[in-house]
Amino acid sequence: MTHPTSPHLWPENTDVHDGVLHVNEIPVTELAAGFGTPAYLLDVPGLRSRAARYRRAFEEAFAPAQVSVYYAGKAFLSRAVARWVRDEGLRIDTASAGELATALAAGIDGAEIGLHGNNKSVEEIDLALENGIGRLVIDSLPEIDLVAARAAARGQRAPVMVRVTTGVHAGGHDFIATAHEDQKFGLSLASGAALQALEQIVANEHLELLGLHSHIGSQILDPDGFAAAAAALLGLRATLAERTGHLAAELDLGGGYGIAYTPQEQAVDIEALAASLAQACRRECERLGTPQPDYSFEPGRAIVGPSMVTLYRVGTVKPVELEDGGSRLYVSVDGGMSDNIRPALYGADYHAELAGRTSSADPVPARVVGKHCESGDIVIRDVSLPGDIAAGDLLAVPATGAYGRSMASQYNLVPRPPVVALGDGAPREIVRRETVDDLLALDLG
Ligand SMILES: *Cc1c(COP(=O)(O)O)cnc(C)c1O
């Protein structure tokens, strides 16, 4: 039993036997025969252990403060996934009526669900209140009156947090502190809008202020941005306490913990990040002379991203001469931008390996492309693949669990791939493959 190369990219329970990738002991050759391709393969024990690891890392680092970890469902949500992460002690963070309804349909208690969104509809707010939502995260000043009115109409008090734009924006290694955030989310700290929102909420009998929220970005590998945002929130919490006597109970520091997509990248060391962040928070509370709040976190990508692999079948293989005299092998797969929009959307990089056989051919420079009618339909811009790769081969792309299926489209009317759960009883689809009949069912002729 050998590991695939760069084991840190692959789901925990992945091995290679005689050149064939196995996920939870099942060969992908068998999975391709049984479920077809493309397919997202989910390592269920791997997903559960990542969820538990994130929860423990924050709980241990921040003890004795109370810690809740919310799984950010937008990364990928299905009823089975909601139940698995709930069973590992996580709550669920949602950002639409569809995500909220999915979490509720999974049997998650409304009190263990949060609702985000910069443009929540009245229907979304009502659905949340009707189900005893644990927290609504307020994202604008007009939303305060809207949520209060809906809560009043139901004779309820809505539990809310305020999403604060701290001026810390992070993503990848760089974080840039700006006085004002030119983006749509949250209420600005610098302009005073965040403090104004907090004061309005404290004064409103139909709203219960739980705390302050910050989400600084995604795919972040450097802990400094989190600490800077936490310090800003703790300062605002102290100011609010001074002005109103209300000491907010909780700080939500959001998600955004980075993972490895390519062999060169390393995921965030979550235990080290949580420890340094907890220490920064303790120091800041001491400096401000305020007691420690409770804390919550919202990892999405870091839980589900590394737990899935996309399995493709290779079709056309085409050598293309380059202007510099070199050549590149264009390897077409049976999916593409419809099942993974991230390369086209963000220029995101991925890795791929031949998954169904051994090869002793020398590696050649290759580009993995999809089957869609766009030249930007690229799965992997630059990757080395065995020079004898050919139609019919299986190709596996790791770390596709987050923002893969959840951002999938039916572009070119290509039905969306299934999510196949492995390591939880017999292999089975937890989201079935879409069919052309599904697509035609929406077409009213
Ligand atoms: C997207 C998002 C998350 C999750 O981000 P990841 O990068 O997937 O960890 C958490 N909280 C909020 C408010 C978000 O918008």
Question: What does this molecule look like?
Answer:
With 445 residues, this protein is an alpha/beta fold. The protein has two domains: 7-36 and 306-442, Lyase, Ornithine Decarboxylase, Chain A, domain 1, CATH 2.40.37; 45-303, Alanine racemase (TIM Barrel, Alpha-Beta Barrel). It has helices at residues 28-35, 44-62, 79-87, 97-105, 122-130, 141-153, 193-202, 224-244, 270-288, 301-304, 342-346, 436-442; strands spanning 14-17, 20-23, 26-27, 39-43, 67-72, 91-94, 113-115, 135-138, 158-165, 168-171, 174-177, 187-188, 207-213, 250-252, 294-297, 308-321, 327-333, 353-354, 363-369, 378-386, 394-398, 419-422, 428-431. Strands 4, 16, 17, 18, 19, 20, 21, 22 and 23 form a nine-stranded mixed sheet that branches. The longest helix is centred in the middle third of the chain and has 21 residues, at 224-244. It is globular, with a radius of gyration of 23 Å. The mean pLDDT is 95. Bound molecules: pyridoxal-5'-phosphate (PLP). Residues 72, 74-75, 93, 116, 215, 218, 254-257, 298-302, 402 line the site of pyridoxal-5'-phosphate (PLP). Pyridoxal 5'-phosphate binds at residues 256, 298-301, 403.
Q: Look at the structure and give the mean pLDDT.
A: 95
Q: Which residues sit in consecutive blocks of at least 5 with pLDDT less than 50?
A: none
Main pleated sheet: 9 strands, mixed
What share of the residues lie within helices? 25-40%
Q: Total helix count?
A: 12
How many beta-strand elements? Answer: 23
Strand-residue fraction?
25-35%
Structural class: alpha/beta
Number of domains: 2
Query: What is the C-alpha radius of gyration, as a whole number of Å?
Result: 23 Å
Overall geometry comes to globular
CATH fourth-tier homologous superfamily of the largest domain: Alanine racemase
